[in-house]
Amino acid sequence: MGLAVTFSTLAQDYALPSGAPDALTGGTPAMRAPPMRSGYHYQSAEIRALQDDDFANPGMLWVDQGDALWRESGAADEPSCQSCHGEPSSLRGVAVRYPRYDESMGGLINLEGRINRCRQEHQKQPPLPYESEPLLALTALLAHQSRGMPISVSIEGPAREFFEQGKTYFYTRRGQLNLACYHCHELNPDRYLRGDRLSQGQPTGYPIYRLDWQTLGSLQRRLRFCNTGVRAEPHEFGDPTWLNLELFLGWRARGLLYETPAVRR
Amino acid sequence: MLKARISVPATATRGEVITVKTLVSHPMETGFRRDALGAQIPRNILTEFECLLDDESVFRANFHPAVSANPFLSFRLRAERSGTLTFRWRDQHGEETTVTRELKVDG
């Protein structure tokens, strides 16, 4: 592929933020061109200003709504999120570890999945569908708690095989345009795709407020949008393919800081 | 009831010009768009915003289809007296969302 560099080479050009956990050990190929950059870097000054303003950032509407849902009890007298976890801030640092391998499921679980499992097991409520307002709100609330913390997913042990599948997906061509994620987000970031500036595809701020959507959306919604962009049939929400890719993207973005709710074009 | 965020300074000195900011969740569907099957998506917008200090109207705005989703407003008021600021949005069907904040003016 010609792009694989060893981590030691990478480290010379680019240092991870101090204290950032890193799953890499020397000799493992790193598949990104340094330096790593959040999608924030590729936005206009106006969009960056909108994200930076905690009041005007429209994503904060969902964080607020998530905070209200956090305090609502489940079915009948089942507990609220707050009854078990206390304040949302007690879950600071949790979101940056997702998706992760879950033994009871024998597979990967992402933050949305984890919220829904809590709902089903402890609140006796049906799971919330992907892209529903309450699920976006709770996901935004939890991810927001980890703002400023480095992404640190684990690809150790049983997670490894899922990671490898996600990596394969990233480098596989698809769709009528016959492009892999790699072609845009590793070979060409910073260059223009018509009027759009390509980013590295780093999942640092999900769920994100996209001006194009005029609303908040999950990482999987964005990935489906990429599928459509290369004219491939999008995978369904919650498809294991997406979980594998989320894990690979998390590993690829390791050390980048969470910024939920991010604002993007 | 819409989700709303309001920013008002905790206190102000008499005569001070304060900045008030509001953000409200609303799709602001223009009525010009069509769905995947070609059917027109009906217009659904907020049409009016008003800010009152007690019963006195201190700021008003009219919204039209070109206003983006989740409208954000920033405006200035001269703080002359303490009171209750009422923020009211009305949509095209006449449904209202109201949020209040206390304004405390010293001196």
Query: What is the succession of H and E elements of chain A?
Result: EHEHHHEEHHHHEEEEHHE
Cα shape of chain B:
elongated
Mean pLDDT of chain A: 88
- Major β-sheet profile of chain B: 5 strands, mixed
Largest contact between chains:
A-B, 11 and 12 residues
Distance between the termini of chain B: 36 Å
- Counting DSSP H or I runs of 4 or more residues, the number of helices of chain B is 0
Structural class of chain A: mainly alpha
Mean pLDDT of chain B: 94
Describe the strand arrangement of the main beta sheet of chain A, using strand numbers. 8-7-9
Stretches of chain B where pLDDT is under 50 for at least 5 consecutive residues are none
By DSSP (H or I, 4+ residues per run), the number of helices of chain A equals: 10
In short:
Chain A has helices at 7-13, 45-52, 60-70, 81-85, 111-122, 133-145, 159-170, 181-185, 219-229, 240-252; strands spanning 5-6, 29-30, 100-102, 107-109, 192-193, 196-197, 208-210, 215-217, 263-264. Chain A is mainly alpha-helical and 265 residues long.
